[in-house]
Amino acid sequence: MSHSLLFLNDLSQKEKVKEIESLNNSELNEFIINTVKLCKPKSVYISIGDKDDKEYVKKKAIETEEEIVLKTEGHTIHFDHPLDQARAKDDTFILSSSPIPYVNTKSENEIDIYKLFNGCMVGREMYIGFFSLGPRNSPFQILAVQITDSPYVLHSENILYRNAFEDFYKNSSFLKFIHSKGNLDIKNRRIIIDRENNTVYSINTTYAGNSVGLKKLALRLTITKSVKEGWLSEHMAIIGFEGKKGKHYFTASFPSGSGKTSTSMLGRLVSDDLAFIREFNGKALAVNPEIGVFGIIQGINQRDDPIIWKVLHTPGEVIFSNVLMTEDKSVYWEGSEVEKPYSGINYEGYWSKESGKPASHPNARFTTPITAFENLDENYDNPNGVEIEGIIFGVKDYSLSPPVIEAFSWNHGIITIGASMESARTAAVIGKSDEYEFNPMAILDFMPVSLGIYLKNYIAFGRKLTKTPKIFGFNYFLKDEKGFLNKKEDKKVWIRWAIERVESNLDALLTPIGFIPKYDDLEKLFLETLNKEYKKEEYEKQFTIKLRKYLEKVDRIKLIYSQISDTPTEVIEELEKQKDRLLKY
Ligand code: SPV
Ligand code: MN
Description:
29% helix; 25% strand; Phosphoenolpyruvate Carboxykinase, domain 2; binds manganese (II) ion; 33 strands; Phosphoenolpyruvate Carboxykinase, domain 3; nine-stranded mixed β-sheet; 3 domains; globular; Phosphoenolpyruvate Carboxykinase, domain 1; 16 helices; alpha+beta; single chain; binds sulfopyruvate
């Protein structure tokens, strides 16, 4: 046997080594052998994902102090390095022999994987996990193997993904993730995406967005795969909304920190972050690659977020990260609207109220199974997916985009709303918050291919559909001199309007940028949904189209896409049509 794992017997559980051997997956054996040889761990723990394995991995996370046990049963807390609190864009590279606009690339000879990873696990245990992105026994399924020396990473994955050891039988192909804490030398933090070999390497980081391979690292590989195969791998929630004529599933793409999670809580939850969307019989069907939630915790309070609040205050699996831990082993985070403790421990060490510093990091998170949410949708694990009838692209935009608009068509929506997104920067990315950023489909940070190729695939996908989902632009953040123009709860009304439009119950007003609600309809929806008056002057402030500013935006976006050599002609045409409409209005 050329790829025998038997040499592992001294390092690992013999029975499990045999089980892997019996899968007869030579690519898998080779991957494990090569990674063990490269990283040189002291021992190897093979997790096939049963109850014992899950308990073992969690126990190790606690023993190694990557997690600390909290007061509430099942809850733990994890701290990342102060400089490792968010996605590390500048340290994340797509391996590519030529540069790609808007994508951080490095060529193979600029990166020495061997040097980075050689012996990185000396003295430590290596963990191997086997997962499925998407439901098992499903045409959407993509397999993935995680190798890591961090039990916290594997513990997180046991919560966030479906264990699927048995599915690796014979030569099923899979995505490969190698992560090591290294020596947590943040200067040498590197995340390297090797598209050709379906492998991601990540070292000197523990923040889940950089280390939990199956989340945003896998997204780079699945986008690459999707554009080759003609489907969509998206940074979108999937939500079922009840209408007058039944339930309608929407996907929703918002840059993190712009309302995606709160929107997900207003309907039946299928996914809060990611979606695989494929065409079957002319319909767009979607599944959640994940079965857990890695959500932002800042601002979560009992009044506005009752469902999440309950999940975070009930015994069961929760990993808190980068919140404050108090002496009695409970947690506190900013914006929770409970009384601030006097002192505690956070990611920087000892914290006291007197310091005046925030108690928790703005990108502090919680990791929980999706089944903990009481608004879980019955189809959350349906191998056939759910039919998507609406797509929401949301931005955090203080001045321009109205609270809700509807596109004229698939291409119009994809191009002038989705691919034209500009949003205030989030705390989920290292750097200054609140600067406006071009962020098409809220996915630019994860883009592994040229935007031209990505959009070409989107346009072609739309053509395959017999009934394309309606496309909406949302913005919960409009402001004037006096502050926000909308209350948090107003989003229920924008969603209601979108549902009514999907059901063709309401007319709309034609503007150069898309359809907007009629005042009378909103007045009625505000009353019905929130029992609230909606004044004409509010409507006018929120829905008057700022022609000059929109013209500037079209020019900005057109400039971006005209500088990308493989931009499909449809993109420029659609932007020019938008410009014409704005000029003629
Ligand atoms: C997000 O911020 O969109 C996340 C967390 O889902 S991260 O994995 O860091 O991107
Ligand atoms: Mn996300």
